[in-house]
Amino acid sequence: MSDLMQDPMILRQIIMDHYEYPRNHELTHDENYMTRHMASDSCIDDIHVESKISNDIIEDIRFDGVACTIATASTSIMSELLKGKTLKEAHVIIDNYHAMIDGKEYDEDLLEEAVALHSVGKQANRIKCATIGWKAMEEMIAESENHGK
Fold first, then answer.
1. What is the pTM (predicted TM-score) of this model?
2. With the C-alpha atoms ordered 18, 20, 24, 27, is the resulting torsion angle positive or negative?
3. Angle 98-99-102 (CA atoms, 0-180°, nearest 5)?
4. Per-domain residue ranges for the chain?
5. Domain 4-147 class in CATH
6. Is residue 72 within 8 Å of 79, Cβ to Cβ?
7. CA 106 → CA 39, 56, 144, distances in Å?
8. What backbone phi and psi angles, to 5 degrees, belong to 25?
9. 46-54 and 34-39 as β-strands: parallel, antiparallel, unpaired?
C-alpha cells in the first residue's frame, strides 16, 4: 500500500478539495455532447454528466447538479482522470475503480487521486454515491462504442 493510502488526512483532503472545488463542474449544453441524468433513491445525488467523445477519445467531461460530498468528489476526480483518455484506457481505469470499491485487487497508480475513495466500499450506503458519475460515463462510453458499429 502506498504512503498516500496510509494517511487518512491526505485522503480526506483530496476528497474535500474535489467537493469544495469540483473540477469540470459546469454543463456546456452543447448538442455535440452526450448527457446522462443520474439520481439516487438513497441520497441527495441528482446530477447531469456530459461527455464529448470523438474518434474513441474522451475529449471532455462535465457535470452539475446536487450531490453529496462523496458523489461530487468522485465525479470530479473521474472527470479529470478520464479526460483525454482513449475508450480502451477508460475501460481499464473504470474497471480498476470498481474493483477498488468492491474491495478487490486494483492498480493504485492507474487511479491516481481516486484512491482517496478506497474505503467507501466498506460503507454499503455510500457505494452508489461513489459510482454515480462513473456509471454515467460507462453508459456514454457504451453508447459511443455502439454508435461506431
1. 0.94
2. positive
3. 85
4. 4-147
5. alpha beta
6. no
7. 27, 24, 26
8. -100, 60
9. antiparallel
Q: Kind and range of the H or E element at 131?
A: helix 127-147
Q: Yes or no: say if 49 and 136 are a contact pair by the CB < 8 Å rule.
A: yes
Q: What is the pLDDT of residues 57-114, one digit of tens each?
A: 999 999 999 999 999 999 999 999 999 999 999 999 999 999 999 999 999 999 999 9
107-138 as b/e, with b when 16 or more CB fall inside 10 Å?
eeebbebbbbbbbbbeeeebbbbbbbbbebbb
Would you state the cell numbers that stand for residue 23, as one nine-digit string?
Answer: 473540477
Fill in the amino acid letter for 84: G
Alpha carbon distance 143, 24 (integer Å): 21
The DSSP-derived string for 78-127 is HHHHHTT-BHHHHHHHHHHHHHHHTT----HHHHGGGGGGTTGGGSGGGH
Specify the DSSP element, H or E, that contains 66: strand 57-66
Residues in the chain: 149
Q: Hey, what amino acid is at 134?
A: W
Q: Whole-angstrom Cα distance, residue 1 to residue 105?
A: 11
Backbone dihedral angles phi then psi of residue 24, each to the nearest 5 degrees: 60, 35
Of 79, 84, 69, whose CA–CA distance to 120 is shortest? 69
